[in-house]
Specification:
The structure is a homodimer. Chain A is 83% helix and 0% strand. Chain A is mostly helical. Chains A and B meet through helix 6, helix 12, helix 13, helix 15 and helix 16 of A and helix 6, helix 12, helix 13, helix 15 and helix 16 of B.
Amino acid sequence: MIHMSPFEAIALKTVLGIALLGLAYALFLRRNILREDKGTPKMIEVWEAIKQGANAYLTRQLRTILPVIGLLTIALFFSVAVVPPSAEALERFPGSSPAQVKLIIGLGRAAAFILGALFSLMVGQFGMRIAVQANVRVAAASRKSYDKAMQIAYRAGTVTGMLTDGLGLFGGTIIFLIFQKAAPDALLGFGFGGTLLALFMRVGGGIFTKAADVGADLVGKVEASIPEDDPRNAAVIADLVGDNVGDCAGMAADIFESYEVTIVSGLILSLALVAATGQIKWLVFPLLVRGIGVFSSIIGTYLVRGKKGEPGDAMKAINKGFYSSAFICLVAFAVLAGFYMHEWRAFLSVAVGIGLAVAIDELTKYFTHTKYNPVRKIARSSRTGAATLILSGLSVGMESAVWTLLVIAATILSSIFIYWGQPITFVLYGVAMTGIGMLTLTGNNVAMDSFGPIVDNANGIGEMAGLEEEARERMADLDAVGNTTKAITKGVAIGSAVIAAVSLFGSFLTDVTKVQVQMGVAQAGHLLQTGIRISEPLVLVGLLIGGSIPWLFSSLTINAVSRAASLIVVEVRRQFKLPGVMEGKTKPDYGKVVGICTVASQKELVGLAAMAILIPLLVGLGLRVEALGGFLGGVILSGLLLAVFMANAGGAWDNAKKLIEDGNYGGRGSAQHKAAIVGDTVGDPLKDTAGPALNPLIKVINLVSVLAAPLLIQFRTITPGVIVFLVLALAAVVAAIWYSKRTVRPRRSG
Amino acid sequence: MIHMSPFEAIALKTVLGIALLGLAYALFLRRNILREDKGTPKMIEVWEAIKQGANAYLTRQLRTILPVIGLLTIALFFSVAVVPPSAEALERFPGSSPAQVKLIIGLGRAAAFILGALFSLMVGQFGMRIAVQANVRVAAASRKSYDKAMQIAYRAGTVTGMLTDGLGLFGGTIIFLIFQKAAPDALLGFGFGGTLLALFMRVGGGIFTKAADVGADLVGKVEASIPEDDPRNAAVIADLVGDNVGDCAGMAADIFESYEVTIVSGLILSLALVAATGQIKWLVFPLLVRGIGVFSSIIGTYLVRGKKGEPGDAMKAINKGFYSSAFICLVAFAVLAGFYMHEWRAFLSVAVGIGLAVAIDELTKYFTHTKYNPVRKIARSSRTGAATLILSGLSVGMESAVWTLLVIAATILSSIFIYWGQPITFVLYGVAMTGIGMLTLTGNNVAMDSFGPIVDNANGIGEMAGLEEEARERMADLDAVGNTTKAITKGVAIGSAVIAAVSLFGSFLTDVTKVQVQMGVAQAGHLLQTGIRISEPLVLVGLLIGGSIPWLFSSLTINAVSRAASLIVVEVRRQFKLPGVMEGKTKPDYGKVVGICTVASQKELVGLAAMAILIPLLVGLGLRVEALGGFLGGVILSGLLLAVFMANAGGAWDNAKKLIEDGNYGGRGSAQHKAAIVGDTVGDPLKDTAGPALNPLIKVINLVSVLAAPLLIQFRTITPGVIVFLVLALAAVVAAIWYSKRTVRPRRSG
């Protein structure tokens, strides 16, 4: 058992209470939102179509995911069978025999996995459902008041934000309270469940939303020259559904997963430090920090109001809420450092995390905002056509990846300085605390992010239901604010993914070392001594293979979007030719396009998940655990660079188009505008499908590696059984790649 | 002294003789070519313009480069001042005092650097000059005979090929014969000189050629709808000059550098193995292999004849030459293995190298040839516009990078298997021998590659001088063959760059370990024991920074091309408006556009070179030598992936356009064709500027690191002097980045 002071015991229970408080606050907000008016019958009609599409997607996705979850639960349960229970586990359950402890840990791990998956699913699904409920109400409210419309949208976003915070913190804390020293095993299961679901939601949502968006734009804006959200376009409802499944469900699950994984790796590295120093404070600190974060998010988000409704008010109000929360946090953290920790190092690490969030935010803004040089340069290059515009964007995206990476490298360096002269355990702890700090204000961040698709949808409903000019203007202003908040969150999500991945890499090292010592396979020195040496050819091979994985994933997801989009183009073209559709007399068959998107997005999931899980096992078994370490390094490096490159190039093209639409460099309808639309369309799947999918991918791979490490060490020699597994796994991966690349046409809707 | 058997002494002298024979063969071919007829006065007029442009570029480039070379020669000479001479150096010059030995080594290093730079410059400049001499003669010959035209073009390419082979082999062998055991220092200087010049030629040539190409296409084909190589386009001569400075001078210097660096790293790792085993055969083997390669290239290339001139004959003849050379090589290598080495492992490594060349060749073909699915898919996606075509190309490029990387990883793995159970020195030797094998047939490869721009230029001269239909058809056929051979060489260049970089990474490890032991800084174990551990946070930071460098370079070079291209567009547009130009009555001012390209391409050189040299020093001094090891790993990983991605995406777009131009998916002039032109234009700077520039970049960084390693170990503690250097170097890097991003307009031509 871990010995806590009475203050610490109470503090941890308070953290649990705050997590529940966050959830209660979410329920409270939800009830208020549902009371609002839904507007005209025409609006409700559009809304029903969106809701139906969204529900169809969620149901179908659940059907695809459940068998995978079931299979993995069983695998996780049995994975403990071959590994003897750790000394910590035996100590935690002193009355039980080793076999019983093994059973407990197996069950705990499987249960935690289900919990993680369930929470991630809840955040994604409930978040999306409340967004769908809110959008029509925002449209209705905007007919009367800017303030009200803004408030509904932001509060609906806050519901998702508080779900993310509350469920993540609750899960992590309760697992620790039950398993204590033996928590890492269950925590890894919890992290894996959440991350895997996030991968599903991110990839599925990303493909859906961009296939619909690209398809709708190509055939509507570019070919038929009709405006966005025009009801004659059969893809328009799919596009609106896409905003929800991608930007709401996908993004929320993604950030939940980052929030959760930083807790998981933070706790695992804390436990290592507790074991090394005998001081429990290192572990209580991150949980208290996160508790304070939830509390300050509740206050901060509640302060957000739209005021009179002059342009810019919404952004100001959202910022005010954010800075209030940040202020409360910093003061409380300082109190914690001075009066509880009696030292400042952990505080500094957390503060670096907040600094990192701000720095990445500023970098993202610089490279993607219309105000600054990069986007202006891209927009200017439209004068020589689409090709130079694409080239400028590629160049800007590449450069932004360099600076973002340097900022993250500086963060890791700062951890080395803060814990100068201390063993590596401290440095890794510092990096983990940076992750804890960076995502402290997740409640606010998710609220800001979800705000985006809600007002975007409201705007679309307004267009399709033909609302009044005044209402449309209000919503257009909100929509612009939403674009900014979405971009900010994306940067934070990527930055936190890298920090979380580096922490997981640290957990991998710690875990492998522990298991090696425990199993007696490490004679001369354990892994932390020999390390992951890329100067060893086998480890270098691992590094190279790891580096290629994010490229493979990006290739497959981009490909999936373009294939699905071309199916949609064909379908919408067919419907345009039906009598009455172009004249606006006959309603097009929206459901059919939603069906295409749903099928296309689900098809990829199982294959990609199989790759993410099997490839690390293949490397670990085939090339040994040190090469797997190199592999993880490669995945983190390539994943970071590609993700930032794609996100920022996409964002920059998007805003270059907006800059031109605002009347610069030729304005709407000019040749330059056409070039900018090409750029925007290229950027869409990069920034909203392939790029964001890398966040959960990096972490799924890291978690699988940490989970599998004891097994890999066990099967260090190549036995016939291992060879059979290797061959089967390789075949499965090849099959998955082959399957992912095929075009599947949806069956007749039924 | 190294003890050689009489056979070995004679063998090495024979290698030297073969190198000289290769050079003599080049001279012989050159004389024959210069004897050929130059055609009509109109043709000579066009040709004079190209020659003038090319000469202006070369002169200007020399002016830019010379100060840098001078500065570095001095730096290299003094770099040995702080490091005590190695035991090997003292042994080599037994009569001299340590101070004298230091002087000898310093002079040797500086002289070898100059030699490397000079040879690289010679290959680039002479290669380009003979290409310029040949193109007009090919055009003239094509009026009479397909066979003759093909032969002139191929033999002109062979001149460059034999220069590459002969100078590379001569330099490496002579340096070894002089310095023997103490050769590594001088060899590194030789490699550095060649690589740095290659970086200059590659970047300069790449920016020039693509700025001209993109600029000419944008304003000619896209805007004014006039055909390629139309004499009314002021950029057309610059475009033709660009083919020479990019595809001839740039590519030749690049391959020379790969050829040379594989010898350099091969000899360094051989010497380590000789020291470990006491057997000189490990070192003699690679030199003999290369000697055999030169000999077989002479025979193989001489066999190439165009025959009757039916379409396809040229490709068949070139292939016949290649396979004859390959056959001679393999037989001779086997004889060497059986009768001299008395074992097969080194033979296997060399054979793996040849296999790697073939595998990369096949992969490149699959992803970029019109016959296969990827390019067909890209061409098909033109039906939904430029955006989906770009997306398909990005996806194809990314996937191709994955498979190429896996093939290279498999090569390294095979080295581990071939030398299973042996110390790491053997494995590194195996990787180096793979590099030796891969570039054995460089003579043939360069001949094939240079063939491309020569026939391309001949075609352009034909168009501008209005030659007969029959001659034009012959040249068009040759041009198509040239496109294929160019693509093949590009794949081999990238693959060999990675293998060479991995060997250099091995040299880095070997060298650092040796120096650490010698200086007594390594107490418990030396670097090969502790290794480059990315599990150390500082090394991980190095890895991350290293990974970002190729992205920074690519961003800057792509940017340079688009800026220069837009300057050209403005200039050509201005000239179109001058009276008489569009009617073909007044000749446009070709020289002005050549001037813009020259200035734009030279501007970047110094900044990029400063970054390539200073950043590794910054990392090594600021974060220590282990982090520099991580840095090199990151550079190799990112560099490989980005280079292959850009090369193949670009190649695939290019051929997708050709596929459409051949009458598929709408054919010439259709909307699909316009979309494909956008893709081709985006791909141009990726495949011909940014991608290829990464080859020498990776190696310059590796060589700087190996050269600086002793210094870095010397300055292990951070002294005020080190801090001053760090600050200055950082400032210089930032200034270089800032300068590279600025647009500089050329001064008035003078």
